Design the sequence.
């Protein structure tokens, strides 16, 4: 039995991370501490100093764990990792998990390449970005390859020169074929230098060069060539027009500001590289109600820069973050150089922060209705369901269905919804082993027994090894089991839970004559549902997804077994002819009814194989 008062006395006087859990073992909050003993105790002292959200969180704490670290920076890094892993309910969460594209120029190679990447490595290559859209990056790379005829292959040069024929790009005039030695490394390097100059924002030499070539080709009446140069010139000017803000100090910096409303916030970030604005993006934060601006911006910085491969030299914010010195040290260690965090009070940089905030506010207002609708159809519907069933809360729902066809094996499916959205990584398929035939109740009993005994076994093994209980594939139990049926299926689930001594709410979906849910069966009574409400729509989505997943699995097994058990047994019919037959006739019945002339119409079939197929089915039918 976990005694909070006694455990508080045992807290160490060291930095680390604390993990708050509810009675189900679910992680509901993760935080870091300079001194664990002092920080964790604060949650269980006078609640007047706590925000409403944290007070609510404390009410749900059943037990806590902690991990000691050597330094505060280590605690900050560990806190980020645990928040990303568990996504706790009461932490301020960054909803977007984006990776940005960069342009990599492999200047460390003799004949460098230019390509898109989402990973910035600590090598000798040059990286430009981040850009906010992969499509724009591909357009720029395509433009550079056409202008400077940069190679696209991954051959190791000069080692592989002359070993293979030049690629299609050489014949299209878009590569100088260094793989054949048709261009010297010195000339090729000049082209790469021009690429780098372009990516640094110096477009004027390229614009001038293309104008001259276009005019020269036109004067010689080489109109197709002139049109090609014209198109390249237009592409360059489009890139130039996207460059709205330029500074003379050539610095790399991010500008960050946010707008908030109720429990949502939008953060706007401008990316400035080499003194030029190359892109911007916005992010959504949840769980901000009751939090200070300082804590919100701190949560964003920690989660955003933990996941992005590039850290700029300077970061400009609208408000000072908590633990600014600590965060600065962490960012500097990630960058490998000093990172400066500023809150500008005047001048052009302060205006740029204001511009970011204005954009964040515009996005928040524009998306407010959309966010409201999304919340209503997910977490709002869950709250309605919890109130409807008189449950404290519902986060995770597991829904089960059975699919069978007479004479073929029975299969089961488990579909998981968390926070009102499908969590496909937790879906599971079951092949019913007991050979019970089309008995849905017996199949459901076997599936639920296997699901929960597997989870109990995993929990026991993890506890014996003193490992995190969430590491198992079946260890996370639902707040509600939703059965695709009424009283009969609910009773099966309740029987399983009683045998395993598990306390989980079970609800059944009662169908109308059209097999659509008309109500819920719970605690021995049917509860009607308003068919125009978000709760009904959520239940319908879960029902449809459960059916789809079960039927899809059953169909794939049936198709695989039918094709294998019949066509693969015919002499001369291998995988290619089997696929051709199924594609042409669409069904085994159609193949059985076909005569030899019909079978000869299938690509790859000859008379001998057609006769084998015909004789196989007709002899089989005659016996």
Sequence:
């Amino acid at each position: 039995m976990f005694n909070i008062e006694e455990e508080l006395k045992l807290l160490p006087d060291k930095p680390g991370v604390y993990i708050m859990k509810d009675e189900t073992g679910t992680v509901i909050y993760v935080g870091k501490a300079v001194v664990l003993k002092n920080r964790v105790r604060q949650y269980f002292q006078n609640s007047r100093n706590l925000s409403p959200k944290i007070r609510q969180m404390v009410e749900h704490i059943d037990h806590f764990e902690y991990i000691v670290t050597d330094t505060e920076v280590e605690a900050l890094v560990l806190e980020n990792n645990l928040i990303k892993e568990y996504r706790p309910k009461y932490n301020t969460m960054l909803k977007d998990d984006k990776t940005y594209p960069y342009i990599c120029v492999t200047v460390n190679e003799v004949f460098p390449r230019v390509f898109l990447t989402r990973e910035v490595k600590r090598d000798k290559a040059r990286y430009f970005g981040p850009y906010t859209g992969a499509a724009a990056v591909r357009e720029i790379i395509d433009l550079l390859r056409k202008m400077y005829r940069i190679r696209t292959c991954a051959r190791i040069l000069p080692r592989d020169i002359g070993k293979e024929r030049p690629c299609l790009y050489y014949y299209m005039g878009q590569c100088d074929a260094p793989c054949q030695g048709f261009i010297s490394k010195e000339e090729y390097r000049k082209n790469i230098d021009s690429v780098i100059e372009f990516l640094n924002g110096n477009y004027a030499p390229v614009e001038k060069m293309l104008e001259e070539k276009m005019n020269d080709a036109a004067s010689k009446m080489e109109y197709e060539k002139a049109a090609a140069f014209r198109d390249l010139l237009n592409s360059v000017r489009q890139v130039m027009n996207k460059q709205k803000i330029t500074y003379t100090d050539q610095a790399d910096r991010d500008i960050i500001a946010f707008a908030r409303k109720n429990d949502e916030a939008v953060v706007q970030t401008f990316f400035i590289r080499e003194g030029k604005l190359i892109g911007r993006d916005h992010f959504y934060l949840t769980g901000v109600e009751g939090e200070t601006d300082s804590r919100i911006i701190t949560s964003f910085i920690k989660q955003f820069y933990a996941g992005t491969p590039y850290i700029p030299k300077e970061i400009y914010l609208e408000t000072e973050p908590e633990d600014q010195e600590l965060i600065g040290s962490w960012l500097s260690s990630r960058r490998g150089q000093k990172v400066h965090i500023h809150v500008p009070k005047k001048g052009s940089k302060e205006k740029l922060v204001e511009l970011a905030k204005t954009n964040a506010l515009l996005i928040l207002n524009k998306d407010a209705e959309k966010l409201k609708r999304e919340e209503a159809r997910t977490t709002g519907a869950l709250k309605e369901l919890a109130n409807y069933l008189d449950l404290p809360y519902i986060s995770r729902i597991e829904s089960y269905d059975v699919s069978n066809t007479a004479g073929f094996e029975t299969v089961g499916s488990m579909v998981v919804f968390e926070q009102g959205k499908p969590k496909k990584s937790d879906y599971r398929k079951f092949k019913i082993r007991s050979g019970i035939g089309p008995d849905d109740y017996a199949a459901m009993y076997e599936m639920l027994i296997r699901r929960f005994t597997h989870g109990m076994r995993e929990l026991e093994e993890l506890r014996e090894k003193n490992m995190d209980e969430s590491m198992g594939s079946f260890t996370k139990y639902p707040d509600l089991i939703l059965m695709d049926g009424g009283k009969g299926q609910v009773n099966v689930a309740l029987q399983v839970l009683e045998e395993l001594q598990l306390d989980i709410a079970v609800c059944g979906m009662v169908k109308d004559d059209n097999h659509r849910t008309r109500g819920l069966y719970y605690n021995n009574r049917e509860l009607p549902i308003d068919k125009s409400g978000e709760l009904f729509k959520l239940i319908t989505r879960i029902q449809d997804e459960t059916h789809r997943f079960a039927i899809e699995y059953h169909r794939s097994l049936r198709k695989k077994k039918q094709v294998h058990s019949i066509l693969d047994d015919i002499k001369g019919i291998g995988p290619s002819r089997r696929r051709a037959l199924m594609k042409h006739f669409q069904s085994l019945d159609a193949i059985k009814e076909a005569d030899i002339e019909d079978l000869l119409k299938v690509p790859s079939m000859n008379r001998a194989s057609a006769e084998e197929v015909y004789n196989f089915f007709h002899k089989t039918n005659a016996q």
About this structure: The longest strand covers residues 276-286. The chain is about 45% helix and 20% strand. The CA atoms of residues 29 and 90 lie 5 Å apart.
